[in-house]
Structure formats: structure tokens, C-alpha cells
Amino acid sequence: MEKFLGQDIPENKRWQFLQDNADAVEEIGYTHRFSPEELAQKKELLAEASIKINDIEEEKKEVLSDFKDRLKPLTEEKSELLENIKTGSKFIPSEKCVKILYHEEKMVGYYNQLGELVYSRPIMPQEMQKTVFSINQKQEQMTEQNENRINVVVPENYNGTPIEVVLREGKAAEQLPTREAIPVKILGTIESPLKWLEKRVELIDQKQANITVNRDCMKISFIDKENDYYRNEVSGVLKPSKEMMEFGINSEKKWEPINLSKFFKMHRAFFNDKAENMVLVSTLKNFKAKVNQDIERSKEENGSRTDNYSQVVDSNLPNSFKLNIPLFKGFACEEIEVEIYADIDGRDVSLSLVSAGANEAIEEYKNRVIDEQLNLIREIAPDIVIIEI
After folding, report:
1. What radius of gyration do the chain's Cα atoms show?
2. How far is CA 347 from its chain centroid?
3. Which of 28, 42, 360, 385 has fewest C-beta within 10 Å?
4. Nearest CA to 133 among 164, 95, 99, 159?
């Protein structure tokens, strides 16, 4: 992040330059360094404030003792309530509870008058004698186990390995209807056919597959099971990148200067030189052009006619600038030089972005990328026929 911006811009124009390139203008607080005179004034104010604080502290000491006595019982009550809320319970120091012995678990449980288990501990040796209550509880458990017993028939040659018994209850699920196979239809980037073949080449019959190449449309199509109604088709297209389409380079897209200024400001990341971007934003926002027109029309008696029109435009637009954007979807960024063409008709001004370098690179890339993909496909699937259309 730069510590200073627009230092080469005159001070009377610097604030306008900064506003033109800002994402927003907001009121904020920031640290301001004091001058020696301001520091001396602050020290005097500090001394006055210290004297007033001392006077108030003396008054506070006189009534502090009274406040402390009044707060003490409330503080104790507050602490007790906070502990109750935190634990969700409170300690009862003394209350009669019943003791129940669980001989099977070798535990002792204590229950309050509401029948809640409030305390448990291991059973002691002298408490091991079973009570009538524990005996009845054991009988109930045995009866319940007998009711849930399952008979399993073991094979004659059973070798002792564990047998898994699965007991299902309720209505069985309905069987799903049989569905027909769903053909694969994929349209992706130019690498899609190659990626599909890399993982599935062993699963296909290469003699029953084909690849078609359309260089004009920058498309590679792979078809598996070419004679099957449910055949699979994977196509890859070399598409212009989203960034190229948004900028409208080498297209019929027209920009108004103010709209192009906003677009450049929001897409500053694609400029290698951030300062160049800021100058462009400010220039487009304050677009100026001087138009000189010369018109000559004449008609002679013998039928000769002259009709000449010329227009000379002098504007503050730069000749060109550089962008770092991907030319195709899924590819790395490339540095290209872009020119701004202006079309001025009276008060109407429209701008378009043109890059001869980008157009040349696209033509070179198109054939090179397609050839690279076909060579890689031939390596992993040599028996698939490749047809140029």
C-alpha cells in the first residue's frame, strides 16, 4: 500500500484526483500530530484535570466506607445466585434420603423425597447382603431377557467364528424401479475430452469412439459408443475469457467515457501499472476533446461537383495502455497492449477498445492449443479416429 498518492499533482487539483480514483469518500477519524504550541496547551489542561480528580477522590473516600457496608450483603447474595445459575443446582447440607443397593452393579444410590438420584458410591463389603427389592429387580430383568430371546440354528460344521444376527422390525422398504442408463453430455473447457479419457480410457472400446475437431468454432468433441442410442459425448470449447468479454476488446462493445472510467477503477487488478490505471480513471472521468471540422461543397455550371468533409479530434486520451488478463477461459494471464478508439458525433462520444496483439495471440493460441490436446489424446488412446470438420 502506498504511503502517499498523487504527489506529482498540484495541491489545488490533488483532492479532485484522489476523489476520482477512490472507491468511496467517507468521514473517518485518524491520528493528527500536535505542534509544540498545541502540546504545551495539552499539558496545562492535564494539570487542571489532575487537580479536579484529586478533589473528587477525597470526597469519594469519605463515602466509600458507607457504600462498602451497603454492598456487602448484596454482593454475597449475588455470588450465591450466580453459582446456582452456573451449576443449575444448589447444595443442601442436610436432608433424609433413601439408600438403594444395586448388587449387580456393585453401587449404592441415594434418592431424595422426589425419587431423584442425588448421590452414588461403590457398595461396601458389609452392604453386600441382598435385599428383597434387589431380588425382585433381578427377577424382572431375567423375565425381560427371556421375552427378547432369539433361537439361532447353528450349521453342523460350525467352526466357532462369530455369527452376526440382524433383527429388523417394521415394513420392508419398497424396491426402487429399474431405470434406463443416462448418457453423459458434458460441455466444458478445451481440456474436457482429454481429462475424461485419462480416467476412463480402459472402460471404452476405442474402435467404437471418435473425435471431431472444428477449428473455426475452436471445439473438440469426443463420442463414446457412436452407434448406441445412449452414447456419451464430451465436448471442449476454447472460449474467450470472462475478462476479455467484460472489457469488450476487439468487439462491437461501446463505452461512454464516464462508464469506462468506473469500469477501469473497479478492475484495477488487471493493470500492471496501478498509477497508469489511476491516470486513466481521472482522464476518462474528465474527458475533454477539441473537434475541428472542414466542409467544402461546390457545384459548377458544367456539372462538376465538389463535396469534401474532414474532422480532426484532439483529446486528452492516451494512445494506449497495457492489461494483464487471460485471453481464454482457464488459461494464464497475458500482457497485451490496448488502444482506445473514439467515435465523436456532435455531443455523442463512444469509445471502443482494440488490441491487435490480442487478436494475433488468439489466432496463434487457437491452433497450438488444439494440436497439443490432440497429441495428448493420441498418446493415451491411439485407436480413436480423429476427424477434422
Report:
1. 44
2. 43
3. 28
4. 99
**Tens-place pLDDT, residues 53-79:** 988 888 888 888 787 888 888 888 888
SS (H, E, C) 270-332: HCCCHHHHHHHHHHHHCCCEEEEEEEEEEECCCCCEEEEEEEEEEECCCCEEEEEEECECCCC
Q: Which residue has the cell 415394513?
A: 171
Q: Please, what is the Cα angle at 248 between 367 and 278, to 5 degrees?
A: 120
Please report where in the chains the cell 475437431 appears, as a residue. 213
pTM for this prediction? 0.47
Please tell me the distance from the alpha carbon of residue 239 to that of residue 217, in angstroms, as a whole number: 9
Is the model's pLDDT at 211 over the cut of 90? yes
% of the chain surpassing 70 pLDDT: 87
Q: How far apart are CA 54 and CA 227, in angstroms?
A: 99
Tell me the pLDDT tens digit for each residue of 88-104: 777 788 888 888 888 88
Polymer length in residues for the chain: 389
Grouping H, G, I as helix, E, B as strand and the rest as coil, residue 309 is strand
What sign for the dihedral angle of Cα 87, 88, 90, 95?
Answer: negative
What is the three-class DSSP state of 150?
coil
SS3 125: helix
Beta bridge partners of 108: 101, 121
Q: Tell me if residue 285 falls in helix, strand or coil.
A: helix
Instruction: Give the whole-number percent of the chain exceeding pLDDT 90.
Output: 25
Helical segments of the chain, H only: 11-21, 36-87, 132-147, 192-200, 242-247, 257-266, 274-285, 356-380
Q: What is the DSSP code string of 22-81?
A: -S---------PPPHHHHHHHHHHHHHHHHHHHHHHHHHHHHHHHHHHHHHHHHHHHHHH
Average pLDDT, rounded, for the chain: 83
Number of H helices, E strands in the chain: 8, 13
- Whether the per-residue pLDDT at 291 is higher than 70: the answer is no
Report helix, strand or coil for 226: coil
Question: Is the pLDDT assigned to residue 384 strictly greater than 90?
Answer: yes
